[in-house]
Amino acid sequence: MVGFSPAGLDVIRRAIVLAYKGNLVQFVNQGPALGKGCKAMIHIKYDQSGKWMITKFVKDHNHPLVVSPREARQTMDEKDKKIQELTVELRIKKRLCVTYQEQLKCYMNIVEEHSDKLSARIHHILDNLKEYESIEELLHQT
Q1: In this predicted model, what pLDDT tens digit does every residue of 55-113 receive, in sequence order?
Q2: Domains of the chain, residue spans
Q3: Which residue has the higher pLDDT, 39 or 35?
Q4: Domain FAR1, which positions (predicted)?
Q5: What is the chain's mean pLDDT, rounded?
Q6: CA distance 37 to 32
Q7: What sign for the dihedral angle of Cα 79, 85, 91, 97?
Q8: Residue 32: pLDDT band by 50, 70, 90 thresholds?
Q9: Among the listed residues 22, 20, 70, the one whose alpha carbon sits nearest the alpha carbon of residue 41
Q10: How far apart are alpha carbons 58 and 64 in whole angstroms?
């Protein structure tokens, strides 16, 4: 919460409260306390002497102030777990897809080589047939 002076836009008071959401602790300078209802706060006011004065201070927290990394990892919610599982599954599927592509390219190369060999044999057979027909035609003419 921020208060302004009646004469202008000078800030004359401010309230800072603590927002505690799950394992995320952050200070906010506006609005009521969020999350688990932590009452910790500090109110300050600019007085007539030109100094900032603390007008209210509550140090009581209803949660730990430090969260260990292990504790933060254990509190991963179901969405995060599902995202992690799907990401791992996607990586596996991508690797499998790359393997299938490589195998398919190999098979396509084998088929292409076989097709080229068959074409060459067919051309050879056609050439032999033409030669045989020309020999047969010469034999019938005599």
Answers
A1: 888 888 777 666 556 555 555 677 888 899 999 999 999 999 999 999 999 999 999 99
A2: 2-74, 77-142
A3: 39
A4: 36-66
A5: 77
A6: 9
A7: negative
A8: very low
A9: 20
A10: 15
Task: With CA atoms as reference, report the closest residue to 125 among 133, 113, 135.
Answer: 133
Provide DSSP, 68-112. -HHHHHHT--HHHHHHHHHHHHHHHHHHHHHHHHHHHHHHHHHHH
> Do residues 27 and 33 touch, judged by C-beta distance below 8 A?
no
Q: Which residue in this structure is represented by tokens 């007539």?
A: 48
Q: What do you get for the CA distance between the two ends of the chain, in Å?
A: 119
What is the rounded distance in angstroms from the CA atom of residue 1 to the CA atom of residue 12? Answer: 11
CA distance 83 to 90: 10
The whole-model pTM stands at 0.38
